[in-house]
Design a protein that fits this description.
By secondary structure, the chain is of the alpha/beta class. It is built from seven helices and 16 strands. It has one domain: 2-Layer Sandwich (D-Amino Acid Oxidase, Chain A, domain 2), CATH 3.30.9.
């Protein structure tokens, strides 16, 4: 029997992870995308801008919760099996200035993370200063995003995946006999393989993230951006993953990367498309970070607590791929040239696309298995 063909649209963390699982399941997979991990960073590609750690905010009983649990287990296995994976386990600390803040999140976190612990104020990680009254801790995954995206891309090609660079006006244009958008082969080395993809996929997987940048499909009006600013700082001595909930509901987070950089956040701009870092937000993020965790500064500079002493690599903004009704993982059907082509949607992961990536890919495999 011929190998079944699959098209995956999108090469962010969601598209690449899905493509890898499909290759491993024996499909012949072609990825189509405008932007790949080796490109310059772009606001149109959310995956470049993530922290990223594992911090579930799924509602109890929601699909997202299952996806995040599967993904946590997958990352723990991956790290055990392959020491070269650009992701590491770290102790995560949730620190609260109010008891109600800790109480609100207790039920969810305590049933989600197997090694969850409630902490009292005396168990703050070394170096944290502030009015902490309660804390939570568990083992999280800290993903070195720039390296991890390259890791996924290499794993995809090693498994025999094919990729084309193209901006598609709609999903149907990809499978239509006339009017297929122009495209070029994309590879990590000077490309050899076929110069045009074949035409008969059993399904198209829609992993286009926010989509709205270039898709002229019937746009899903539930999708919206939640912008997030971060500061990348050189601070290889920082060990823990920290999220700090201030009494006034501000939030600071710190995520270490394998490279020795750390990500300091953050901000949440609902429906905010602004594509460049706002200086006043960047300044507030730095001030909050240094106030609660002077260890962000190089040794010798911590007493003074001056944000200008931070070894800043970059000030960033990304658009989380939010969706009012939550992640979309379902099958619909496209009619093109009289043929019916199943489309499996895998987008709308909001601020959790990394921590739900492997679970989402597994769910897509289940939906694929249910086709005819
Ligand atoms: C500041 C910040 C912090 C975050 N922190 C975390 C965290 O700690 N943990 C976590 O799990 N998540 C985190 N996230 C969320 C995470 O980054 C996203 O959920 C995830 O990256 C979404 O990935 P995606 O593959 O769906 O979309 P994207 O990465 O945006 O990829 C979309 C792909 O589709 C392609 N595409 C779109 N339209 C077209 C078209 N018309 N034609 C061709 N190609 C197209 C694009 O080129 C791209 O390849 C964070 C996000 C931000 C901004
Ligand atoms: C690219 O070439 C390098 C060196 O020749 C090789 O090690 C690597 O596996 C190749 N990568 C791909 C994706 O073919
Ligand atoms: C594919 O996903 C995007 C969101 O990224 C959505 O707007 C679009 O409607 C989807 N395509 C189809 C055909 O449903």
């Amino acid at each position: 029997m011929d190998q079944k063909q699959l098209f995956v649209v999108g090469a962010g963390v969601v598209g690449l992870t899905t493509a890898i699982r499909a290759l491993e399941a024996g499909y012949k997979v072609t990825v189509f995308a405008e932007i790949f991990p080796t490109d310059p960073k772009s606001i149109k590609y959310t995956s470049f801008w993530a922290g990223a750690n594992h911090l579930s905010f799924a509602e109890s009983g929601a699909l997202m919760e299952v996806l995040e649990k599967d993904t946590l287990n997958e990352f723990l296995d991956l790290i055990k099996q392959d020491p070269l994976v650009p992701a590491m386990t770290r102790t995560h600390f949730g620190l609260y200035e109010t008891l109600s803040g800790a109480q609100e999140r207790l039920d969810h976190f305590s049933q989600f993370y197997p090694d969850f612990r409630s902490l009292d104020a005396s168990e703050c990680p070394a170096g944290v200063v502030g009015d902490v009254v309660a804390g939570h801790s568990w083992t999280t995954i800290c993903i070195d995003v720039p390296r991890y995206l390259l890791y996924l891309l290499e794993r995809f090609f090693k498994l025999g995946g094919q990729a084309f660079r193209t901006t598609i006006p709609s999903l149907s244009s990809l499978v239509s006999a006339n009017g297929r958008p122009s495209m070029e082969v994309f590879g990590l080395n000077s490309s050899s393989g076929p110069q045009t993809p074949t035409m008969n996929p059993v399904a198209v997987i829609n992993c286009t993230g926010l989509g709205a940048f270039s898709l002229q499909d019937v746009l899903d009006t539930d999708v919206y951006p939640t912008s997030g600013q971060t500061i990348i700082i050189r601070a290889p001595w920082v060990q823990p993953s920290i999220i700090y909930y201030f009494a006034n509901s501000d939030i600071s987070y710190i995520i270490p990367r394998q490279s020795g950089d750390i990500v300091l956040g953050g901000s949440w701009g609902v429906d905010d498309w602004h594509a460049t870092s706002r200086p006043e937000i960047a300044k507030a993020i730095k001030e909050r970070g240094v106030r609660i965790y002077p260890e962000l500064l190089p040794p010798g500079k911590r007493e003074k607590g001056d944000i200008n002493d931070l070894d800043v690599i970059a000030e960033c903004v990304g658009l989380r791929t939010s969706r009012k009704t939550g992640v979309r993982l379902e099958t619909t059907v496209l009619e093109v040239d009289g043929k019916k082509i199943p489309v499996i949607h895998n987008y709308g992961h909001g601020g959790g696309g990394y921590q739900s990536s492997w679970g989402s890919a597994k769910h897509v495999m289940k939906l694929l298995g249910e086709l005819d």
